[in-house]
From TrEMBL:
It is a multi-pass membrane protein. It comes from Roseovarius marisflavi. It is found in: Cell inner membrane; Cell membrane. InterPro entries: LSM_dom_sf, MS_channel_1st, MS_channel_C, MscS_archaea/bacteria_type, MscS_beta-dom_sf, MscS_channel_2nd, MscS_channel_C_sf, MscS_channel_TM-2. This is Small-conductance mechanosensitive channel. Residues 60-100 form the Mechanosensitive ion channel transmembrane helices 2/3 domain. Homoheptamer. Mechanosensitive channel that participates in the regulation of osmotic pressure changes within the cell, opening in response to stretch forces in the membrane lipid bilayer, without the need for other proteins. Contributes to normal resistance to hypoosmotic shock. Forms an ion channel of 1.0 nanosiemens conductance with a slight preference for anions.
Length: 268
């Protein structure tokens, strides 16, 4: 019995150290979340600072605190900070090779925040993937598609891809195309479209609405339409104008042709 007690007493300091380390780890993890949240709210509260920077700064603060917690936990087990630095220095090459993709994402994250090709809330297309920017942190960019699908894009891929920002400018050009029959009056059809455009308050007068014959197709005369509007009105204007032009054409006797197939039978 005494031998068992002696053996258990030998593990006492280790158990106490493990309990301390667990307490520091839990407290540090909670503190990292709370402090990073405070940083995010404080930075985002300023109207002069973009919310993208607030999220990125909060992410940096969280990871710095977690790194400090890790050093403190290792110190509880007797591993000094100087020894830790020496070990990390010796393992730098191996870690760099193993995490080169992650380090690339980290560096790309800083570049994205520095140059800010997109911000939170903007609708973008990155390397063929489209969505609204929900978050930008140290390692990845989060997008949300119009049908509410979450997309996680590593920052390294985002920085190295072609970025199309549909929300960067306050205005956008809405391009439409309508086909009319060869027997219809093209000038009459263009006047109908211009009247509808001028009557819509979302269409800007400068640059003025533009309607031209852009192509003579196989079965139709194609009319190109260019309308300038606020970026927020783009999709509503595009859908409404398409419907309005179709109804106006029907009302004014302008036909919209569709391709015809002619079957030719060879006499045997």
């Amino acid at each position: 019995m005494q031998d068992i007690i002696a053996q258990l007493s030998g593990y006492g300091p280790m158990i106490i150290s493990a309990a301390k380390a667990l307490a520091v780890l839990v407290f540090g993890w909670m503190a990292a979340g709370i402090i990073s949240g405070m940083v995010r709210r404080r930075v985002n509260a300023s109207p002069r600072i973009d919310k993208t920077i607030g999220n990125f700064a909060a992410s940096i603060v969280k990871w710095v605190i977690l790194a400090m917690v890790l050093v403190a936990v290792l110190g509880i087990f007797g591993i000094q900070a100087t020894s830790l630095v020496a070990v990390m220095g010796a393992a730098t090459l191996a870690i760099g090779l193993a995490l080169q993709g992650t380090l690339s994402d980290l560096a790309a994250g800083f570049m994205l925040v520095l140059f800010r090709p997109y911000k939170l809330g903007q609708y973008v297309e990155i390397g063929g993937t489209s969505g609204t920017v929900v978050d930008l942190n140290l390692f990845f960019t989060e997008l949300s598609t119009p049908d509410n699908v979450q997309i996680i894009l590593p920052n390294g891929q985002a920085w190295g891809a072609v970025i199309r920002n549909f929300s960067h400018h306050a205005t956008r050009r809405c391009d439409l195309s309508f086909g009319i029959d060869y027997g219809d009056d093209a000038d009459h059809a263009m006047r109908i479209i211009l009247d509808l455009a001028n009557a819509d308050p979302r269409v800007h007068a400068d640059p003025e609405p533009w309607v031209r014959v852009v192509n003579l197709g196989d079965s139709s005369v194609d009319l190109g339409v260019r309308l300038w509007c606020d970026a927020a009105d783009y999709w509503g204007l595009k859908f409404d104008m398409t419907k309005s032009v179709k109804e106006a054409f029907d009302k004014n006797g302008v036909s919209i042709p569709y391709p015809h197939q002619v079957e030719v039978q060879k006499a045997g």
